[in-house]
Amino acid sequence: MISTFIDHELKAFWRSKNTGKSIAVKVVMGILILMLFLYVLALGVFLDAILKQVFPKDDLIVSFCGIILVYFLFDMLMRLQLQELPTLKVQPYLHLPVKRNTVVGYLALTAMMSFFNLWPIVIFTPFIIKVVIPSTGAIAGLAFFISIIALSILNNYLALYIKRKANLNGWIFLFAGAILSLIVCGDYIWHVYSIQKISYLFFGNLLRVPFWTFLPVFLAIGMYYLNFYYLKDNLYLEELSTKKAEAAKSSTEIPLLSRFGEVGDLTANEIKLILRNKRPRSALIMGLFFMFYGLIFYTQAMYGETIKVFVGMFMTGIFIINYGQFMFSWQASHFDGILVSKISFRNFLRAKYLLFTVVSTVAFLLTTPYVYFGWKTLLMHFVMYLWNIGVNTTMVLWFANFNQKRIDLSKGASFNWEGVGASQLLLSLPLLICPYLIYLPFKWIGYTDAGVAALAFIGLAFILTREFWITQLEKDFLNKRYKIAEGFRNK
């Protein structure tokens, strides 16, 4: 039956009206993946030399044991962002004498066809053959190899399970991202524990007692069956849709926003849109990952104080940049309904401002631990927070009036160029350059604090004159609304 499923999917692909476009995309993707594969293979071949340079004081096998769990932690972060859910149009088979287990088994099997499952084998196998087996024997090398494959399978099905649960309740995705972020922070920022030491604790014992390999194997099998039975229980559309409706109703009501009236309701609806759809949700998740951006620059003295303008703006405003560059395209599928509804476009714009203010406020609060690098760092974050919710939000909404490309919300963000156009490139330049046009002249004449004060003053001025800018944006939109709507209708 599995061969029948594969045959049907191949026929569906070749008979699709977009076959030519799909082939072109797959060819380009194949070339990129091949190039990436060669880089990963080179990393695996020279991993022993790299570990010697990075950990010159440690034994080679000790350092190798220490990085394995670190790799799989970041592997999970990448899977949550990039790995796609395996799909099958099951409706035609539900009324046929096809067993549920067969359909679900096929979905579980295709879930293994991910390049994320290939990378650990390519990276770690050369090291196991070159170093582990000659030093500790073939049995220990085999135990290492089986454990790495089992951890890869565990990550594979855990990421898919989180994504499937998140389709019913968007908060689950944020909760999973928060847990992973806390795990990373606990090691690399707060130094509560060491993931490398935990990794060595397991894999070091694995060298002496190979039977420890059964632990990751049992965890992988358990996660496989957890996915299997979850899919089996939700195979029929009415079961999944009912649960999804109940979960959406209970998980996305935001009483705090109701006090803002119609503006609060519009903001709550947009938050629901973000949490329920893949591509906008990825913009929010990417914002969480970029909270660690400061660790790249603040730990290196060579970057100096000037870089804090960029880093502060980026961390407190990454959502405005990522999500705002496609503004109004997120509502492309129902934009005509917005135009003919009784919703005031003025309130529609106010809701955008409120959304960006709420998310940027949360982002600023998440960056407060960077006070560890000095109070001036936190002050710069606050100044750029004011700049983001004042100046950058206004610029993003102004550029939105030039955006006429629709976006399919159901598609993932990875390698998806839908909706990307010249307006996105033009938008990124002023967002990145404008703060420096204000700050650098003061720095060059020796008044750095005055430059920071000027940024704060301009950001605050834009916030206080927000109604004026909303009026100007509304006038500009009314002149272009039909042209925008026409662009969104082109699929």
UniProtKB/TrEMBL annotation:
<feature type="transmembrane region" description="Helical">
    <location>
        <begin position="309"/>
        <end position="332"/>
    </location>
</feature>
<feature type="transmembrane region" description="Helical">
    <location>
        <begin position="353"/>
        <end position="372"/>
    </location>
</feature>
<feature type="transmembrane region" description="Helical">
    <location>
        <begin position="59"/>
        <end position="82"/>
    </location>
</feature>
<keyword id="KW-0472">Membrane</keyword>
<feature type="transmembrane region" description="Helical">
    <location>
        <begin position="444"/>
        <end position="465"/>
    </location>
</feature>
<feature type="transmembrane region" description="Helical">
    <location>
        <begin position="170"/>
        <end position="191"/>
    </location>
</feature>
<feature type="transmembrane region" description="Helical">
    <location>
        <begin position="23"/>
        <end position="47"/>
    </location>
</feature>
<keyword id="KW-0812">Transmembrane</keyword>
<feature type="transmembrane region" description="Helical">
    <location>
        <begin position="135"/>
        <end position="158"/>
    </location>
</feature>
<feature type="transmembrane region" description="Helical">
    <location>
        <begin position="283"/>
        <end position="303"/>
    </location>
</feature>
<feature type="transmembrane region" description="Helical">
    <location>
        <begin position="378"/>
        <end position="400"/>
    </location>
</feature>
<feature type="transmembrane region" description="Helical">
    <location>
        <begin position="103"/>
        <end position="129"/>
    </location>
</feature>
<feature type="transmembrane region" description="Helical">
    <location>
        <begin position="211"/>
        <end position="231"/>
    </location>
</feature>
<feature type="transmembrane region" description="Helical">
    <location>
        <begin position="420"/>
        <end position="438"/>
    </location>
</feature>
<keyword id="KW-1133">Transmembrane helix</keyword>
<dbReference type="Pfam" id="PF18940">
    <property type="entry name" value="DUF5687"/>
</dbReference>
<dbReference type="InterPro" id="IPR043742">
    <property type="entry name" value="DUF5687"/>
</dbReference>
<protein>
    <submittedName>
        <fullName>DUF5687 family protein</fullName>
    </submittedName>
</protein>
